[in-house]
Amino acid sequence: MATINLGSIKFKWQGAYAVDDVVSYNGSSYICKLASTGNLPTNTTYWDQMSSAGTNGTDLTSTLTTQGDIVYRDASGLARLGAGTSGQVLQTNGTGANPSWGTVSSDMVQVVSATGNGATTQAFDSCFSSTYENYMIIANIAVSGTTAVYMRLQNSSNTELTSDYYGAGRHTNRDSTGTGGSDMGFWNAGEISVQESVTGTSRTNQFIVYVSSPFNSNVMTSVRTLFISYDGTYYRNVNLGAIHEVAQSCAGFRFYTSGQTFNSNSTFKIYGMK
């Protein structure tokens, strides 16, 4: 009676070519049918093919050529999508279409971020463009000493505009004894002013400013400001609307003080809104 070695009833992955040895070559599998030495698995005299690497013929080592490449399935087989531009995201284009890289689009995007520069003026050149119709500015201001903070628009050449500002608003305050307030405003002034001072490096002095159509040369630029501050005695709130009476394109703006400097813990963020 024949003796069967149970240990031989299995695939043996090895480099020596004996009958029933199984090897891998270029992604396909082959079984030895005639013992030999030095013959490639593609030699059908000695080998039978068990499985194929695939029928699409795509070699990923040559398809993916650059760091950051990815592979996807197109209409005919595997294909390469090269790395996109920094900051882009991978997006699907739906069933039956290839993926692609794209830029995140939003109705509100941060266009500028800055901190206090240690100077009496903090200018934001060319922060307005035709990309966005309106802008929101959030400025948390800390200063070297008590000072008023003013705002001016800058023309298309980033030269500050020093006249033709009109505005009105309401100032309210609260201290330990109660609440007060008054109307306020300015007429044909040289700047936009909330007529309140900021103080201290750790106090909350916040400007939230909405600017409408600054880059449109056919309309006057309008500005609406919410100002809040606390100096240790008074909590103040100012709501102010203003306009620059001359219709022209404004590329930027600036905050400036009456002799004090913007500390490094001041923060400024500008958002464009479509």
Can you walk me through this structure?
With 274 residues, the protein is mainly beta. The protein has three domains: 8-51, Carbohydrate-binding module superfamily 5/12 (Seminal Fluid Protein  PDC-109 (Domain B), Ribbon), CATH 2.10.10; 60-102, no CATH class; 108-273, Jelly Rolls (Sandwich). Helices cover 1% and strands 48% of the residues. The protein contains one helix and 20 strands. A hairpin with a 2-residue loop joins strand 13 (165-175) and strand 14. The radius of gyration is 36 Å and the shape is elongated. The N and C termini lie far apart (89 Å).
Features of this protein?
single chain, 274 residues, mainly beta, Seminal Fluid Protein  PDC-109 (Domain B), Jelly Rolls, 3 domains, 8-stranded antiparallel sheet, 20 strands, 1% helix
CATH architecture of the largest domain: Sandwich
Shape: elongated
Sheet with the most strands: spatial strand order: 9-20-11-16-17-18-13-14
Oligomer: single chain
What is the C-alpha radius of gyration, as a whole number of Å? 36 Å
Brief description of this entry?
The chain is built from 1 helix and 20 strands.
